[in-house]
Each structure stands twice: as structure tokens, then as C-alpha cells.
Amino acid sequence: MLGKGPSYLLSDVLHLPEPSARFLLALYGAYLFSFIYRYYVSRHGAAVQNLYWTMSGVLMVVYIYGWGVWHMLLDTVAVYCTLRLIGGTLLSVVITWLITMGHLVGGYLHIMYSNEIHPIAWTIPHCVMVLKMIGLAYSLYDGRKKQETLVSEDIRKNAVHSVPSFLEVMGFSFFPGSVLAGPQVSTNKFNPQPELFTPSWTGVSIG
């Protein structure tokens, strides 16, 4: 057992496939990142907090999937650019859906027809990211409507009225508490008290 990493040791102890043990270790790693955030990072400003969430989530994904992290990075950047240009429009929702779902379905098909099928694939965190990005696009779309036209209180609470900054979108996408297996949360639930914990959603006004 000498020379083996912690995921191999855990795999031997729990009789799990090594990728599953690695995934489990990364999930528990989120607690460590949350502890560091609570006691050291939360006192800093918006940019530092979102940069910390981004780096933490990227590290977790890289630990499991290696260069597979590029799938999430590519889609997050593409969605940010879309929202920056036309955020709050129905077209932005459609384009976000096509970018993220198209990439995810392509990944499923590639895995299905390849000879390297494994239950722990990059499509797991990518699926969570897809839900987040589509939800953000819809929240911006709702935020552009008049409040009285929104059909429920939940939609009104989740509406986002301005395009987030690049670091805010990255921090939301790679938040370590949900980056690997969810849950998917709305942007406003991710950031319930901006004055205390994380920065408010600032950026290009679409109201």
C-alpha cells in the first residue's frame, strides 16, 4: 500500500472503485473549504470571496476529473458572455439552454459510445452546472419583467435584476458546496445576505 494516494487507501478500506473513493473524498473536502471560508475568507471583500469559491470548486473538480474541468469552464464563460451581451432576454435563455444542454448531451453520447464508460464521469458536475446556468438565465429574464406580472412569490424572490460580474458567475458555478453533486440553488438563495456573507449581484443593469 506504500506509495498509494488517499483515494486508493480509502478504496481498499471501503472496497470501492478508486474513482468512487476519490469522489467521496472530494465531497468531504467541501467541509474543509467551508471551514476555511467561515473563519478566514468571509471577512474579505467580494472579489476575494468569489475567487476563493472559484478556486476551491475548480480544485475539487480537477482532483476527480483532471482536465475534464475544461467542460465546465468553457460553458460557464460562454454563458457569462451571453448574459453580458443579451442577459434578461428570451434569446439569452434559449442560447444558454442550447450551449449547456448541447454540451451535456454530447458528453453523454460520447461516454455511451466510448469504451471508457464509468459511473464517475465529468457529466455529473456538469449537469449541476447546467441547471445553475439555465436558472440564472431565467432569473435574469424574470428580473426584467414587471413585478406584478410574475406569477408566484417564489419567482419574484428569485428574480435577478442585473447581470453578475464574471467572478460572481464563476463563484456561483464552482461553489464547492454544490459543484460536484448539487443541490442546484438559485442565485438569490446562494446569496441571501450579501451585506454579511457574499457580494451582491452587481454588473450591467437590465432593468
Automatic annotation (TrEMBL):
The name this protein goes by in its record: Lysophospholipid acyltransferase 5
Molecular functions per Gene Ontology: 1-acylglycerophosphocholine O-acyltransferase activity; lysophospholipid acyltransferase activity
BP term (GO), one: lipid modification
Keyword line: Acyltransferase, Endoplasmic reticulum, Lipid biosynthesis, Lipid metabolism, Membrane, Phospholipid biosynthesis, Phospholipid metabolism, Transferase, Transmembrane, Transmembrane helix
Documented EC number(s): 2.3.1.23, 2.3.1.n6
Pathway where this protein functions: Lipid metabolism; phospholipid metabolism; Phospholipid metabolism
Pfam families assigned: MBOAT (PF03062)
Source organism per UniProt: Geodia barretti (Barrett's horny sponge)
Single GO cellular component term: membrane
Lineage: Eukaryota, Metazoa, Porifera, Demospongiae, Heteroscleromorpha
Domain of life: Eukaryota
